[in-house]
Amino acid sequence: MKKTTVDEVLQQGIYGPLETKPDERRKYLGTIRERIIVALYKKQVAEAEVYPQIEQSIKEYPGAQLFLNGNMSYEELSKYVKLATKNKIEHKLVTNKEHDTEIGLVLAMDDAIDKEEILITKKEPILEKPQEKKGLLSKIFKR
């Protein structure tokens, strides 16, 4: 392991600790793309209904964290805060005064998962298995 020089210590004291992929972190609310499960744009978060893909992903990844854009109004974010609380996952409001991103919500893990498609483009209802219709004879003659 490399020893830190006096110059590096001074630079970190002046500008803060070194950060990997700072542009990516600003865009994706403090996390990097390789850790993201799903993400939504601000206009999608502002819609009245919760995206079913977010709800499904929260249930699939119970160890995930939900990052919400703190530059948005709480009324727009509250449905996702309630969803995170209901499913007992950690959530954070991320506010960056120097850089405003178009991303409104990010569901991410602590480690890399490298999903190819992270941005949800449209609402898709969660398809459930249709129940088999039982006729009169099947009620009479149980198998």
Structural shape? elongated
Helix share of residues?
A: 25-40%
Cα-based radius of gyration, to the nearest Å: 21 Å
- The parts where pLDDT drops under 50 for at least 5 residues are none
* pLDDT averaged over residues: 86
Our count of helices gives 6
Assembly level: single chain
Describe this structure in words.
By secondary structure, the protein is α+β, with helices and mostly antiparallel strands. 33% of the residues lie in helices and 15% in strands. It contains 6 helices and 4 strands, in the order ααβααβαββα. The protein has helices spanning 6-15, 22-27, 42-45, 52-60, 74-86, 136-140, and strands at 36-41, 65-69, 90-94, 103-108. Strands 1-4-2-3 form a 4-stranded mixed β-sheet. Helix 5 (74-86) links the parallel strand 2 and strand 3. The N and C termini lie far apart (69 Å). The model has no long low-confidence stretch (mean pLDDT 86).
Give the helices and strands, then pairings.
Blueprint: H1 6-15, H2 22-27, E1 36-41, H3 42-45, H4 52-60, E2 65-69, H5 74-86, E3 90-94, E4 103-108, H6 136-140
Parallel strand pairs: 2-3
Antiparallel strand pairs: 1-4, 2-4
Keywords:
143 residues, alpha+beta, 6 helices, 4 strands, 33% helix
Short description:
With 143 residues, the protein is α+β, with helices and mostly antiparallel strands. It contains six helices and four strands; from the N terminus they run H-H-E-H-H-E-H-E-E-H. A four-stranded mixed beta sheet has the order 1-4-2-3.
